[in-house]
Amino acid sequence: MDHQITKPSILPGFMELLPAEQIAFNQMMDTIRANFERYGFIPLDTPLLEKAEVLLAKGGGETEKQVYRFTKGDNDLALRFDLTVPLARYVAQHFADLAFPFRRYHIGKVYRGERNQKGRFREFYQCDIDIIGLNKLSLINDAEIPSIIYSTFKGLGFNSFTIRLNNRKLLNGFFESLGIQDKIGLDAVLAEVNAMGVTDRTGEAIAEFISIKGSNREILASLKQLEVNNAQFNEGLEELSQVVHYINCFNVPEANVVIDLTIARGLDYYTGTVYETILNDHPGIGSVCSGGRYDNLAGYYTKQQLPGVGISIGLTRLFYQIQEAKLIHLNQAATLTEALVIPMKIPIEAAIGVANQLREAGIIAELYLEETKLDKKISYANKLGIAYVVLIGEDELKSGLLSLKSMVTGEQSPMGVSQIIEKVKDKQ
Amino acid sequence: MDHQITKPSILPGFMELLPAEQIAFNQMMDTIRANFERYGFIPLDTPLLEKAEVLLAKGGGETEKQVYRFTKGDNDLALRFDLTVPLARYVAQHFADLAFPFRRYHIGKVYRGERNQKGRFREFYQCDIDIIGLNKLSLINDAEIPSIIYSTFKGLGFNSFTIRLNNRKLLNGFFESLGIQDKIGLDAVLAEVNAMGVTDRTGEAIAEFISIKGSNREILASLKQLEVNNAQFNEGLEELSQVVHYINCFNVPEANVVIDLTIARGLDYYTGTVYETILNDHPGIGSVCSGGRYDNLAGYYTKQQLPGVGISIGLTRLFYQIQEAKLIHLNQAATLTEALVIPMKIPIEAAIGVANQLREAGIIAELYLEETKLDKKISYANKLGIAYVVLIGEDELKSGLLSLKSMVTGEQSPMGVSQIIEKVKDKQ
Prior knowledge:
Oligomer: homodimer
CATH topology of the largest domain in chain A: BirA Bifunctional Protein, domain 2
Shape of chain A: elongated
Number of helices of chain A: 15
């Protein structure tokens, strides 16, 4: 061709995977999806591009600066930066067509033009579930969420993780009782107390609050003993007690859910229960699954009162961390193929027939069709990590028995197609 | 809240589905994925945003005008407009890490700022497979592709469709033999002959060529009888004959694959075999799955010669057409939930326990947790199309037998949890 070669590359901050990694990534996504579905969440898919005025109706904040926003023709467009705003817009827009409580999951890419740094991505998958009520939503939903987190992370292969639980009303009410204004930001208050130490009575009270430790039962008892005279605090305490009780009913082991009074995720957004999920052996990674309860999902788009509770897994970042720290064992094969059919100097028709039979039996089968030496064909299977090859040469055609070779053990034995099907299926 | 309400809406030309539609859409996507995987294709996922200079390396054409392109910071960005250019970039970029032939599938959204009209979408899913060879690629791959189209469309529920088959070399060589320059565009030549009728000798020859009809065997025989003295034509004829022969070996019924000498899809891109897929009862929809063979995938990004063959299904448009013309029966339920557990004036713990058991048995189970009247709970199940509800009241708690009610038949009978599990599983 009479043109220049453009260097093939992608944008900085974007993740792209090689086949083996991609297969492992998709397996994780499938596990998450299966868990979300098992709990009765329905799938949603919304446009990645939306009207900027709609997506940014709330406006302000760090997020807006990071948004990919541009114009095309008359349209002012933006790439979504999370899955929550599109959910709010969706529920408001399609309100009349939905049944409540509305349980949806959404697995999709979102975009944030973050500062370029290791482990931060500008395009990343979020895996979200939310339960949206109409006017009200039972607190027991807040207890079901941790059971979904638990089954999902178990399913992903994590053995040691902790779901941290708190209730915003506890903190809010506690600070209220001390006369501390919500406006200055509770994160800031906590940070200040943590950093500066304690001098006055308010500081002492906060320190006492934060230092409450023990089992969930002990923490709840200690909170009661504080005898905080504040309605919000007591509402939060009652809610947290209820949630802990019901989490137990959902069969989540006590070791996996602990009350942590210091977590205060998304203070401007969540209004009750909040969750974070920590990998016990890698707390430095931070929360791998977070969320909480909010009073009203879609106030920017509708006058309907839509309380909800939900969580989000940042899968791209989690996958990156898994690779960096080898957190769990990931699939290593660069293929889904279970058996590679290799013809050796025979009419190809016979090999096609065998591949047909394997595929009809539900086996992922591939045919090696290129003309080359046998060792090249075998090395193709090796390079991809295909577990079995089916060799068909003149001898095999004569005897009617094919050669099934395990690429793992090197073992090779003659057998009929139905036996091959059995053996390959068994191994998977 | 003290803010204005923004009208919730999405951009024109973007598809967004309600839950029942979304579930049906996802089922189609799952079917396509399962078929692609069964043939040994590996999944790829590339960024939706790429460097504009890379994505538009080829440049020119109608496509470039439609591209969503913008800048952010120092980056000149574009949203991908197909999955082929990202594949070319990917293969060139990761060449050393891939095994060839490289078989990949990719299901993802692409973006084209098309003129706004009914049935055209600016964001749509493409489902692509391609087999990429290194320097060469066996022609038998061209015959495997129709078997994937066949199994996929059968799997989707289509019963009457035709895969149209042609070879670009036939047309090229034929026109070459008549001294017609390729430059004016073969589509234009065909259109002219079709519209203007025939007056001279060249026109007669073209008309004769186009009028060749019959079974695949007859068409191949007629082409041979033309005795066109052109190397390219004869190469195309030989390839087409071979492809037809091997398609048979792949068990595709003859009725589903017909040679059609008039199809000339992507004349500037495809170089050999070309495919289109027509729904027999709705030919007006046009091709629902198209593709072909190309000499070199990634000439803009690498000097490696990478021939390939592939197809693409435009799923968003196909789904739209299915809905418009009721082409196949789609799932109607607005839920994946198989059983809804409904507590009636009992401590909720017992109901949670039942939901736990159903979920552990692999049943998609949901708990109705809101406090409301029974008929509202039942109407929730009805609205979503949930097949079974499990009713638990005081009587059920006393007897230990729950009430399983089929929402389809209205039948309600008392039974234990294990019997419920069996019954719900059987029905699915």
